[in-house]
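G., before I forget:
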Amino acid sequence: MLSVRDVSKEFILRRSAAEWVRRQPGDTHLAVNRVSLELARGEILGLAGGSGSGKTTLARMLIRLVEPDEGQIVLEGLDVRAARGRQLREVRRRMQMVFQDPYSSLNPRMSVGAAILEAGRVHDQPGSEAGGPFVARLLDLVRLPASAATRRPRELSGGQRQRVAVARALAVGPQILIADEAVSALDVSIQTQLLNLFLDLRDELGLAVLFVAHQLSVIAEVADRVAVMHLGEIVEIGPTAEVFRAPQAAYTQTLLAAHPRHVALAEALIPGGPA
Amino acid sequence: MTALLRLEGLRIAFQHRTGSTEVVRGVDLEVGPSETVGLVGESGSGKSLTCRSVIRLMPSHARMTAARVEFDGRDVLGLSTSDLRQHRAHNVGMIFQDPFSCFDPTKRVGEQVAETLRVNAGMDRSAAHDRALELLASVGIDRPEQRFRAYPHELSGGMRQRVMIAIAISAKPKLLIADEPTTALDVTTQAQILALIEQLRRDSEMAVLLVSHDFGVIAQACDRVAVMYGGYVVEAGPVDEVCAEPRHPYTRALLESIPNVESAGQRIRRAGIPGQPPNPAELRPGCPFVERCTLARESCHDVDMTLAEVAPGHVTACPIVAAAVGAASSTRGRP
């Protein structure tokens, strides 16, 4: 469904005063270096890597929040790099992003319902003219009570706010969700709830998800396939089980070795009781 | 073994116009000399405030009371302002999650290490400079002369955390408090920082109180662990035992929620913990976990959250589990 070929992005770092006077070019940083990947309908692709590996830059290039320098991005026959005006809006309707911090991505002065409705109306989604039922359906999709519609973001917990961010993304009827560290700031027990929500949405709506995270264990459990980025390149990509059982790239092996060991539960909470 | 740190009945409440909200509700905790103790819990559980009580580092609107806060046989609660300064300077080192906000961005990092030595150890300028270089080298910073002259923003997150550790151990403290020291770091850097803390602990016989929301980190680094929820310690014990045989429903549910790389591709769906963590302003008497607990019953609303021993050194606040474990072990003991 989505095909990315040899995409690169180089950032020009700020020039020093001396370089500016001498008209010398500033230092550059190659954030993403000729990266290719495919995302199929209903697939969850994990994008792992340390900070500075280029995973966020890559994710942002897919919806042109960052302009790629070269390469090709095609979404079901639609050339993303060439899209302008209405076509670019269509690209962004079909691919929606969910960010790490829902507190800064939601308007604090807008009620949850208004924020969801606004997104739907901007993209003329069927049902959005009606208001109430449209919002109720989306809140239901992310397992929030319809009463949440009148709340403001600050009245909600972190996990609930992130659900609102997902509902707002779903309001425009996307085919792909790009979740950029969407569960990283949440407590473990809340994180599990959000991960299950992504799995449910994939099953119910056939959504594809690009799941960007620095936590390998989170990716291990939700992704069908995983791509590992290091220094702007994808060093390894494959089915999740294979990559984690027998990592080929040296960097993947380093990452896995550094991961805190898993704590195995031996016994039931009450001896002799059900596990 | 006499404890280095002993907290008993610690309570911390935030004062506001309409009353006060208790966020730490009676915590007992002991740390022995050169022991690593973990404090694990989710946001709002009270773990950070609990560890800050050791040096009485409280927000201005927080009121702290305790039956006992004893460090190395001395009462911390009764310390005068100048004695408290000495206590903070010499006995306890502390490192935080975000090393960037702890530095002065306009000063070279080496100067900031040296400044600590001049102020706290009374060294002169050149002695402090030399000792600062030694300290930087001891926390695994290569080319310390060069790094000494770097500004905080020129260092990576892991490097900044190393400098902060250098400052924290500069007075050879008996206890290092590490509050989420690796949360902002990559997994590879996290492993290096944990290894560094462990090496320093062994070399200088320093105790470590490690606060984290990540059970994986705690399991890897600690000897003992205390699990906090809703302002209480709900379970405490040897870390391997607590991880393998948790004796509180919250600990068990938390451990079951942790995703793990070994189940890669198995598409398991974890049950997680239903509901939300409690809001401290709405906490009632009884067990704070009752609304999310699978074992909950009517009597849980009257539980006083005292800790009962279920195995040597292993305690739980859940009377239901404690009673069941007690019954199981007494039947096992019978001929």
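Chain B has a mean pLDDT of 91. The CA atoms of residues 1 and 32 of chain B lie 7 Å apart.

More on Monday.
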